[in-house]
Design a protein that fits this description.
3 domains; mainly alpha; 341 residues; elongated; 14 helices
């Protein structure tokens, strides 16, 4: 039987329309949300991961209905899926998920780094917030070549991780985070009075600031505590800072923070033990904020060589010029406490 030409054309047209309709249904069905009740969940794309593998994970983790639809759409639209961490939901159409992954705006976490934290404590905080692996942060923070490239005159960034509130992407690169924090240090300190221009002198001042940061509790007393340490350094007297011993115990020895220091603690053999050696320790013991840095750069001019905590609640100190005065204030405080005053 011979099919007439107009009938053949009609057949082909109907076939094409049917195919187009089937394809449209396929596209619509594949783009439809996989689960309308889904909530936003973190989805991480590793560097170098292929589109096919990403699409396969999107399907297996329930974000999309059809992995091949994702691959097809990415290829046809000549898009790329960026590495990073993203919040997506199975309640979103696949096209919207592709758009989010293509735009590359990683999920950010707003995080506040407090004053006085060490590299290790900062690493633990960042890891707890799922921003980065703590070990990789610590390794980068002690990469001397990288550290020097940031303008830090030391072999680690201890002391230069400026305490502030930041927004970091989940899964961020360690060196990117460190670079951001160190650059912030130099930006925030450039207008401080008496900022040292010599890198080595700056480092000495940062070491001192890191100790002041761990010693003061009342802002107005930071320059006074700085004056005590500065006066001691001038005459070759030991700093006798409990904070340096606590640093040895928690950061070098990895023990819990002590509730009180014992005589054995004060006798620990370490270059950081300012009860054993005069002068500054080899490096910073914390990352100081502006108050401690300013106090280190511009200490008060006083005759004080000693200070003693007089109010544990308020955190205030009594400052004295000699050991006799220091001893007498301690005795007076003991007598007042014994008398119930």
């Amino acid at each position: 039987m011979t099919i007439k030409f107009p009938v053949l054309i009609l057949f082909i047209v109907v076939l094409l329309v049917s195919c187009a309709a089937v394809f449209a249904v396929y596209v619509a069905g594949s783009d439809y949300p996989a689960d309308l009740s889904g909530t936003e969940t973190l989805f991480v794309i590793e560097r170098g991961e292929s589109v096919t593998k990403i699409a396969q994970r999107l399907e297996s983790e329930g974000f999309v209905r059809n992995k091949w639809y994702v691959v097809m759409r990415v290829r046809l639209e000549n898009r790329s899926l960026k590495a990073g961490a993203f919040y997506i939901s199975s309640a979103q159409p696949a096209s919207r998920i592709i758009e989010i992954l293509h735009e590359g705006r990683s999920a950010d976490r707003r995080i506040t780094i407090p004053e006085g934290m060490s590299i290790r404590k900062t690493a633990r905080l960042l890891e707890r917030e799922s921003i980065i692996d703590g070990a990789s942060f610590i390794a980068a923070a002690h990469d001397s070549v990288f550290v020097r490239s940031l303008g830090v005159p030391a072999d680690s960034v201890e002391g230069y991780l400026f305490p502030d509130t930041y927004k970091f992407g989940i899964g961020s690169d360690a060196k990117t985070i460190i670079t951001t924090m160190v650059k912030n240090f130099f930006v925030k300190t450039r207008n401080l009075e008496s900022l040292p221009s010599d890198p080595e002198e700056l480092h000495r001042k940062v070491i001192l600031a890191s100790i002041i940061e761990r010693e003061y509790r009342v802002e107005s007393e930071a320059p006074l505590i700085s004056s005590v340490f500065t006066n001691r350094l001038k005459i070759g007297m030991g700093l006798y800072s409990c904070a340096t011993v606590e640093y040895i115990i928690t950061e070098i020895q990895g023990r819990d923070h002590p509730s009180r220091l014992t005589n054995d603690d004060l006798a620990i053999q370490s270059d950081f033990n300012t009860y054993l050696w005069a002068g500054l320790p080899p490096g910073p013991i914390s990352n100081p904020g502006l108050i401690a840095l300013s106090a280190s750069f511009s200490p008060e001019k006083t005759p004080f060589l000693y200070f003693r905590l007089n109010d544990p609640v308020r955190g205030t100190h009594t400052f004295t010029r000699s050991f006799d005065e220091h001893r007498d204030t301690g005795r007076d405080m003991y007598l007042k406490k014994a008398a119930g005053n």
